[in-house]
Automatic annotation (TrEMBL):
GO terms for molecular function: D-mannose binding. Its main location: membrane. This is Putative lectin family integral membrane protein. One of its GO terms (cellular component) is COPII-coated ER to Golgi transport vesicle. The lineage of its organism: Eukaryota, Fungi, Dikarya, Ascomycota, Pezizomycotina. The keyword Metal-binding does not apply. The chain crosses the membrane at residues 282-306. It comes from Xylona heveae (strain CBS 132557 / TC161).
C-alpha cells in the first residue's frame, strides 16, 4: 500500500516541477485608460481628458455618446487625443444603431488612422485616410448579393478614395453580413484584436449575450505605428441614432515569447495598474512556492513511512 502512495507522491512532485518550469505563454492584458470610455464620459470641466468630439455629436452622461441623432444630414465624430501606440492591443466597445421607420442610413465607422477629428464624406470622417477603417454600413446603395447591414474593413494608403457608389466594394479587405445588428434586442458589441504584423480580427455580439461571432480575420496586417482611435457616423436623407455606450481598450503582451520575440507591455500612465501587475506576480510566485513545498513535504513524509515499515518488517 505504501509503494503506490510513494509513487503517486513522487509522480505528482515531478509533474509539479515540470509545470512550474514551463514558460507562461498566455496572453496577458493591461487596461489602456487613455483609450477607454465609460459613463459619465466627461470630466468636471465638461470635457473628456482622453477624447475629442465634434460635429453633431451629443453626450448624455448617464447613457451614451450619440454621434448622430435620427435626423437627416448629420455627421459626428469621436477621436482619441493620444495615438494608440501599443504593439498589440484589443478594443471592445458597446454601441447601438437604432431609429424609427423601415428605411434608415447611412452607418458608422471605427478608425485606427493617422488622421483624427477631420469631418468628411466617409461615414462622417475624411476620405483618403491612412490606416484602418471599419465600416458598419446600414444602407445598401449598389452591392447585389450582399445582405445589409454589412461590416467591412479597408486599409487606406492616404491616396485611395472610398468606393461610396458601390458600398466600398473596390476597397474591401474583409467583411461580413450582420443581419440583425441594427436594433438588436441584446447589447451590440464589437471586439478588435490586433497583433502587430501578424493578425487582425473582428468579432461581433448581436444575436445573444456572450455569443461572439467571428466577422473576419486579416493575416499580416500592418497598421501605422502612430494612429488614433476614432468613431464617426453619418446620416443622409435617411437617418438613425448611432450611439457609443462604452469603450474598453487593452494592451496585450506575452512574457513567454511564444509567438517569436517576447513582447513587453507598453508604458501605462498612472501607478495603480503597474502596482497591480507587480502584486499579481508576487502572489503567483508564492502560490507556486507553497504548492511546491506541499508536494515535497508529502513525498518526504511518504518516504519516511515507507522506510520505517521496511525496517519493522525485517523483525
Amino acid at each position: 500500500m505504501l509503494l503506490p502512495r510513494l509513487s503517486s507522491a513522487l509522480g505528482l512532485l515531478a509533474l509539479s516541477m515540470g509545470v512550474f518550469g514551463q514558460d507562461d505563454s498566455d496572453v496577458k492584458s493591461i487596461p489602456l485608460r487613455t483609450h477607454s470610455l465609460v459613463s459619465p464620459y466627461l470630466d468636471t470641466d465638461m470635457q473628456s481628458r482622453w477624447f475629442d468630439f465634434g460635429g453633431d455629436t451629443i453626450i448624455r452622461a448617464d447613457q451614451y455618446i450619440r454621434l448622430t441623432s435620427d435626423r437627416p444630414s448629420q455627421q459626428g465624430w469621436l477621436f482619441s487625443r493620444v495615438p494608440l501606440t501599443a504593439t498589440n492591443w484589443e478594443v471592445e466597445f458597446e454601441f447601438k444603431i437604432h431609429g424609427q421607420g423601415n428605411l434608415h442610413g447611412d452607418g458608422m465607422a471605427i478608425w485606427v488612422t493617422k488622421q483624427r477629428s477631420t469631418p468628411g464624406p466617409v461615414f462622417g470622417s475624411t476620405d483618403r485616410f491612412e490606416g484602418l477603417g471599419i465600416f458598419f454600413d446600414t444602407y445598401k446603395n449598389n452591392r447585389p448579393g450582399v445582405t445589409f447591414p454589412y461590416v467591412m474593413a479597408m486599409m487606406g494608403d492616404g491616396q485611395t478614395t472610398y468606393d461610396q457608389a458601390n458600398d466600398g466594394k473596390a476597397n474591401e479587405l474583409a467583411g461580413c453580413s450582420a443581419r440583425g445588428l441594427r436594433g438588436a434586442s441584446v447589447p451590440t458589441k464589437a471586439r478588435m484584436t490586433y497583433f502587430q504584423d501578424k493578425s487582425f480580427t473582428l468579432d461581433l455580439q448581436y444575436k445573444r449575450e456572450d455569443d461572439w461571432q467571428r466577422c473576419f480575420e486579416i493575416p499580416n496586417l500592418s497598421i501605422p505605428s502612430v494612429a488614433y482611435l476614432g468613431f464617426s457616423a453619418e446620416t443622409g436623407e435617411l437617418s438613425d441614432n448611432h450611439d457609443i455606450i462604452r469603450v474598453d481598450a487593452k494592451n496585450l503582451y506575452s512574457t513567454s515569447g511564444a509567438s517569436g520575440k517576447s513582447t513587453r507591455p507598453e508604458p501605462v500612465r498612472g501607478k495603480s495598474t503597474v502596482q497591480q501587475k507587480k502584486s499579481g506576480g508576487w502572489l503567483w510566485f508564492f502560490f507556486k512556492l507553497i504548492m511546491f513545498g506541499g508536494v515535497c513535504y508529502g513525498g518526504f513524509t511518504g518516504y519516511k513511512i515507507y522506510i520505517k515499515s521496511r525496517r519493522s518488517s525485517r523483525f
